[in-house]
């Protein structure tokens, strides 16, 4: 079975961190592709342990500008 998850990728020093907001699973890599590949493996392992799939609801990711 295949399912789709939302993935957020951010750079932290020399690493790319890929995280999934639906279940708080995260992984990292030295490139975006490696971080996503590692996240896919982490998600597969997470759901091997009988965790229920999250209900699909829209996830909105945006940016805001704040005067500091």
Describe this structure in words.
The chain is 25% helix and 24% strand. With 68 residues, the chain is α+β, with helices and mostly antiparallel strands. It has a single domain (1-68), classed as Double Stranded RNA Binding Domain, CATH 3.30.160.250. A hairpin with a 4-residue loop joins strand 2 (15-20) and strand 3 (25-29). The radius of gyration is 14 Å and the shape is flat.
Give the topology, please.
Elements: E1 8-12, E2 15-20, E3 25-29, H1 32-48
Antiparallel strand pairs: 1-2, 2-3
Strand content: 15-25%
Distance between the termini: 47 Å
Rg measurement, Å: 14 Å
What is the average per-residue confidence, as pLDDT, rounded to a whole number?
90
Tell me the structural class: alpha+beta
Q: Count of helical segments?
A: 1
The CATH architecture name reads 2-Layer Sandwich
- Mass-distribution shape: flat
Query: Count the strands?
Result: 3
- Helix-strand topology string: EEEH
CATH topology: Double Stranded RNA Binding Domain
The portion of residues assigned to helices is 25-40%
Order of strands across the main sheet: 1-2-3
The number of domains: 1
């Amino acid at each position: 079975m295949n399912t789709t998850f939302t993935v957020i990728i951010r750079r932290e020093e020399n690493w790319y961190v890929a995280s999934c907001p639906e279940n708080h699973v995260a992984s990292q890599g030295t490139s975006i592709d490696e971080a996503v590949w590692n996240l896919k493996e982490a998600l597969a392992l997470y759901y091997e342990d009988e965790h229920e799939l999250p209900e699909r609801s829209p996830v909105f990711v945006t940016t805001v500008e704040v005067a500091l």
